Amino acid sequence: MSWHATILTLFPEMFPGPLGVSLAGRALREGIWRCEALDIRSFATDRHRTVDDTPFGGGAGMVMRPDVADAAISAAMPDGDARPLVYLTPRGRLLDQAMVRDFAAGPGVVLFCGRYEGLDQRVIEARGMREVSLGDYVLSGGEVAALALLDACVRLLPGVMGASESAVEESHSAGLLEYPHYTRPAEWQGRAVPPVLLSGHHAEVARWRRTQSEAATRERRPDLWNRMQVAGAQAPA
Ligand code: 6GU
């Protein structure tokens, strides 16, 4: 069975979008995963196909109606569908590689893309939706976040990347940012490649890369760095 992504959105034409090309696109054509986008608006029941309404308590913007969202979810998930139901919102828990690994290891995901100010809280609770965010900035809707989440999952599916590459991703730099990369020419615009990388001393290269990874993590991601210190993750070579 294919890994199955269903996206609930007001803009189904955005899918598979960029995931129709390159690695994910090939995997899609090979049937490794399936991408099905449903138009939330098609579950509206009134003449004007209304999906939103004004917020109780006042304030700016519009809120997605729980009845329309719930009908869309029912259509996406038949009884017994074991896939996690994810609501993409800047209010969500931050997406990380552990969450991506979990999603990729299961039967697939159902992604609900928010627009406007958000979705009525009652349907989030009634359906046990998992609220997920990409980071601390605001996108105009959940669709671009859904594409990012799917890209991260699909590259982990068996047969998508090469087993060697995926193995490297896990073990090598666990909890650290990647070291910088260089290729030919050895000198470009007066800039030399760090000589250690040309030395042929594999242990020296590994030590240099580790130092670079640690320095970048300390400077750019003190959050990751401190978490690593707390965890006592004196990762091996
Ligand atoms: Cl999941 N949605 C929106 N609208 N903005 C975001 C986000 C999600 N993650 C980061 N910014």
TrEMBL record:
Specifically methylates guanosine-37 in various tRNAs. It is an enzyme of class 2 (transferase). It is found in: Cytoplasm. One of its GO terms (biological process) is methylation. This is tRNA (guanine-N(1)-)-methyltransferase. Pfam families: tRNA_m1G_MT (PF01746). Residues 6-226 form the tRNA methyltransferase TRMD/TRM10-type domain. S-adenosyl-L-methionine binds at G114, L134, G135, D136, Y137, V138, L139. Transmembrane segments: none annotated. It catalyses: guanosine(37) in tRNA + S-adenosyl-L-methionine = N(1)-methylguanosine(37) in tRNA + S-adenosyl-L-homocysteine + H(+). NCBIfam families: PRK00026.1, trmD. It comes from Sediminicoccus rosea. Homodimer. Belongs to the RNA methyltransferase TrmD family. Its main location: cytoplasm. One of its GO terms (molecular function) is tRNA (guanine(37)-N1)-methyltransferase activity. Its EC number is 2.1.1.228. Keywords: Cytoplasm, Methyltransferase, S-adenosyl-L-methionine, Transferase, tRNA processing. The keyword Cytoplasm applies.
